[in-house]
C-alpha cells in the first residue's frame, strides 16, 4: 500500500486552493475548454496511444527476499552513492584522517555494512567519468542495457548485498474489466490526455470549428509504481491538471501565438 495517501482537512483545503488558482490562471484567463473525462478507460484507447505496449518500467527482484526494485532507480542510487563516497574519501585525505591500517579488517567492515550506502571509497578519474556519463542519460537505457550496467558495476540488493534477477518489463497501468461479463478490458487512466484527445471533434465543434484552441482537464490518474518514493511526488494515485493545445500547422493566425 505504499504510495497511497489520504488528505486530511488541511491537505484537502490546500489542494483545493491550488487547483482553484490553476483553473483561474489557465482555464479562465486563457479561455480554455475544460472537460471532465472518465477515469476508467477502454483498452483500445490505451492500446492506440501506445500505453498498453510501452507504458512500462524495468524491475529487478531479489529471489531470496522477494524484494522488488526499479532497475533505473537502483543503478542511479548506487552510482550516486559511490560518487558521494569518493567525495568523502577525498575529503578524508585532505583532512589527514587515518584510514584502516589493516586491510583485512577493513574488508570485513565493508561486508558488514549495507551495500548501496555511502562508503568513503576513492574512485579513479575514468570510473568517475563513466558514472557521471551514465547518470546523465539514465532515463534512456533499455532493460537489457540496465542489466548490463548492473553486471558491469556489480550492483546488488542495497539492503542485503544479494544477487538480483535480470530486468523485466512491468506495465504501470492498473488493469480492470468493464461490464458484468468481464469481456471488455479496461485500465485506470495513467494520465488525463487521452480523454481530451478522444473528445477533439466535439471540442472543435464547441469552439465553432475554430483553431487553434486549448483544452484542460483536472482529475485523478493512476500509476502502479514499482517503488513509490519522494513523498507525494511519485505515488500510485494522484491529481493531475493537464492542458493540450491544438494547432493547425498551416494556419497559425492565433493573435497570441508568439506567446
Report on the architecture of this protein:
This protein has 259 residues and is α+β, with helices and mostly antiparallel strands. 38% of the residues lie in helices and 18% in strands. It has 9 helices and 9 strands. The longest helix is centred in the first third of the chain and has 24 residues, at 71-94. It is globular, with a radius of gyration of 25 Å.
Q: Report how far apart the termini are.
A: 43 Å
Give a count of the beta strands, DSSP E runs of length 2 or more: 9
Whole-angstrom Rg = 25 Å
Unreliable stretches, pLDDT < 50, 5 or more residues? Answer: 101-115
Give the fraction of residues assigned to helices: 25-40%
**Helix count, DSSP H or I runs of 4 or more residues:** 9
Percent of residues in beta strands: 15-25%
> Structural class from helices and strands?
alpha+beta
- Label the overall shape: globular
Largest sheet, spatial ordering of strands: 1-8-9
The biggest sheet amounts to: 3 strands, mixed
Order of helices and strands: HEEHHEEHHHHEEEHHEE
Overall pLDDT: 86
Write the layout of secondary structure elements.
Blueprint: H1 9-28, E1 33-34, E2 40-42, H2 43-48, H3 51-54, E3 56-61, E4 68-70, H4 71-94, H5 103-112, H6 125-136, H7 143-152, E5 168-171, E6 175-178, E7 184-188, H8 193-198, H9 200-206, E8 213-222, E9 237-246
Parallel strand pairs: 1-8
Antiparallel strand pairs: 2-7, 3-4, 3-5, 6-7, 8-9
What keyword list fits this structure?
259 residues; alpha+beta; 3-stranded mixed beta sheet; 3-stranded antiparallel beta sheet; 9 helices; 9 strands; EC 6.1.1.14
Amino acid at each position: 500500500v505504499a504510495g497511497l495517501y489520504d488528505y486530511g482537512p488541511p491537505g484537502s483545503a490546500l489542494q483545493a486552493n491550488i487547483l482553484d488558482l490553476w483553473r483561474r490562471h489557465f482555464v479562465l484567463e486563457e479561455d480554455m475548454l475544460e472537460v471532465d473525462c472518465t477515469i476508467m478507460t477502454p483498452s483500445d484507447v490505451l492500446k492506440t496511444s501506445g500505453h498498453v505496449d510501452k507504458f512500462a518500467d524495468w524491475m529487478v527482484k531479489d529471489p531470496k527476499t522477494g524484494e522488488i526494485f526499479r532497475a533505473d532507480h537502483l543503478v542511479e542510487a548506487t552510482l550516486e552513492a559511490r560518487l558521494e563516497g569518493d567525495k568523502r574519501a577525498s575529503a578524508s585525505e585532505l583532512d589527514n584522517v587515518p584510514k584502516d591500517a589493516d586491510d583485512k579488517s577493513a574488508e570485513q567492515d565493508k561486508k558488514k555494512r549495507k551495500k548501496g550506502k555511502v562508503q568513503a571509497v576513492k574512485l579513479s578519474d575514468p570510473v568517475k567519468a563513466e558514472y557521471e556519463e551514465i547518470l546523465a542519460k539514465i532515463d534512456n537505457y533499455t532493460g537489457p542495457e540496465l542489466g548490463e550496467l548492473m553486471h558491469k558495476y556489480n550492483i546488488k540488493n542495497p539492503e542485503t548485498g544479494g544477487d538480483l534477477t535480470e530486468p523485466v518489463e512491468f506495465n504501470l497501468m492498473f488493469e480492470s474489466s468493464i461490464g458484468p461479463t468481464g469481456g471488455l478490458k479496461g485500465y485506470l487512466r495513467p494520465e488525463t490526455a487521452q480523454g481530451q484527445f478522444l473528445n477533439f471533434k466535439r471540442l472543435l465543434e464547441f469552439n465553432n470549428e475554430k483553431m487553434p484552441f486549448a483544452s484542460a482537464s483536472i482529475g485523478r490518474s493512476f500509476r502502479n509504481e514499482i517503488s513509490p518514493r519522494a513523498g507525494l511526488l511519485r505515488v500510485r494515485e494522484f491529481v493531475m491538471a493537464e492542458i493540450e493545445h491544438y494547432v493547425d500547422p498551416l494556419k497559425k493566425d492565433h493573435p497570441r501565438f508568439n506567446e
